[in-house]
Sequence to fold (343 residues):
Amino acid sequence: MLKQIVIIVFLLTFCCSNVALAASKPKTMPPVFVETITVQTTSHQDQISSTGSLLSIPGIIVKPEISGRITKIYFNSGDVVQKGALLIEINPDIIKATLVQALAELKLNKLNFDRSATLYKTRDISKSDLDQALANYSSAKASVESAQAQLQQTTIVAPFTGKLGLSQVNVGDYVTAGQNIVNLQTLDPLKVDFSIPELYQSKVAIGQILSLRSDAYPNETFSGKVEAFESLINQNNRTLNVRANVPNKNGKLIPGGFVEINLQFAKQQLIMIQQTAIVYDPSGNYVYKVVAGKAEKTSVVLGEKNSDDVTIKSGLKIGDVVVTAGQIKISPGAQVILAGSKP
Fold:
């Protein structure tokens, strides 16, 4: 009986020691299947899309400086005119008569002044008489110059080469100073104003080429060149206004037209990975790299994103193997098996 009791105690002791030994051994998690990519650089060309309006600089509405009746019209609607070409004549008859009278008075006052100067030398008149004669002569000259200037205003000429719009007057119409006569616009080159986000300010340079598209010509692309920037940022929407020069030799584009603008920058070699690889965390974003078959938590600094990928500014290098699917089931140091690897 005693022998049986000893055997039972021995067996119980052996079993308990085995259980304790098994409990003391760390549990090994099974490997996790993950999908990965191998980090490479991607050729990326950043670009901005914007909209703008075509401008004519110079571009004006021709208006008279004086009131009067139109006696001659020298142009037809839609004409292309050269700088200095005659456009409109406003009845000059009254001003011509005024000029003739002013010239006559100038002649008379000059004779009086010359005579007074001779008499003053012989002390036959006083200095005040000579001064009055000089004042009358100067006033007469001013009257002539005023009449001549008014006469010039009766003829309107094109101040620059351009294309005329639709005439808004007829011969015989009485026009007032400042009344619209006709549009005159420079068509080649045109200008286009548009805006870009503030963060692109350092990337845009004078002389940079851009492309334009117009709904009027959906199958054509026009080009332009950046020529100036606004001197301050628009504080309402944090954008910078830009002006570009647009050649328009064929005259297809018209001032006031709406265009879509595409501005491209130099190509860059960037590290871009799928957004699904990123674990977003308030304390810092990270990814899991696979190193020697184990998951390694790696902090990354993110750049610009698109619908699928994100730029990695720092944290990864070419050749790194990064987990893109399955990272929710792994922790740092976990054994992983590559279920699918994309170059």
Observations:
- Residues 92-153 form a domain with the Helix Hairpins fold (CATH 1.10.287.470).
